[in-house]
Amino acid sequence: MATIPTAASTIDSAEMGRTLAHEHVFVLGTEYQQNYQDWDEETRVAEAVTALAELKSLGIDSILDPTVLGLGRYVPRVRRIAEQVDLNIVVATGLYTYSDLPFQFHYNGPGLLFDMPEPLTELFVKDLTEGIGDTGVRAAFLKCAIETPGLTPGVERVLRAVGQAHVRTGAPVMVHTNPHTQSGLVAQRVLAEEGVDLSKVVLAHCGDSTDVDHLTELADAGSLLGMDRFGLDELLPFEQRVDTIVRLVERGYGDHMVIAHDASCYIDWYTPQDAARVAPRWHFRHISEDVLPALKARGLSDDDVDTLLVANLRRLFE
């Protein structure tokens, strides 16, 4: 067993229960929100409390929230929500970019204008060991991304800093990947070069692909596959997402997958109306109400489901 910090307290890994591996409380462009949005803090917080309480009522006990720098994370708001719901919110540290670094890090680092040890690594380690800012909330895992642009200099710096922070702390790693460009293989290579234990890595968004041969190649290196965009049927239809999980279980890879929606209580990348029109099932209830029954109808047992929702994530942290 292991002790896991959450946004409201700490829990034993045995208390994680059924866990969705990739959900966001808020995804915001902070400058945009502060300058242009008609933002009502109390309304948004209340909506989040309602949504997460409903998720708990459906039998989900915990979520991993990989909202990090670049996605508008504001830990005091998340902590305030976590204190009002009987659901564990496990937060991350890291940096989300597909290309360049924010200017707070662009000129700072080994061999750069302001020559110093990699500040990203030091920041991530502090978030994991001491707390994020002065909130007292410690991150429990690391998050980074590699998308269609590939291993840009900025992306590589983040990946290597995440790898270095993992080696120093043992914290699990989650990587936003694009299975259509097979960027998960690149992420695995770079992280392995930094000494990362690939069994402690979740490769997010593998569920956007039906290429089972590619997915098993990733799993054979030890990593967990994030089948974590249920509800985004425009990216891959529901039936194909379910079928891919079933095929992987039939091949013996049930212990290499985790599931989620990659949904949020509020995201400002598009309006709620547009999201509901394009992806009407992209909400926190979809897995409990639709996905799990579909998986069982295709032959998965209760033990198989518990492996996806409980055992694999416990192993990740333990």
TrEMBL record:
Residues recorded as bearing N6-carboxylysine in the entry: K143
Q: Where does Zn(2+) 1 bind?
A: H22, H24, K143, D262
Q: Which UniProt keywords apply?
A: Hydrolase, Metal-binding
At which positions is Zn(2+) 2 bound?
A: K143, H176, H205
One GO molecular function term of this record is: zinc ion binding
What's noted on cofactor binding? Binds 2 divalent metal cations per subunit.
| UniProt cross-references to SUPFAM superfamilies, sorted A to Z | Metallo-dependent hydrolases
| A UniProt-annotated Pfam family | PTE
Q: Which InterPro entries does the record cross-reference, listed alphabetically?
A: AryldialkylPase_Zn-BS, Metal_Hydrolase, Phosphotriesterase
Cofactor(s), by name: a divalent metal cation
Family, per entry: Belongs to the metallo-dependent hydrolases superfamily. Phosphotriesterase family.
This chain belongs to the protein called Phosphotriesterase-related protein
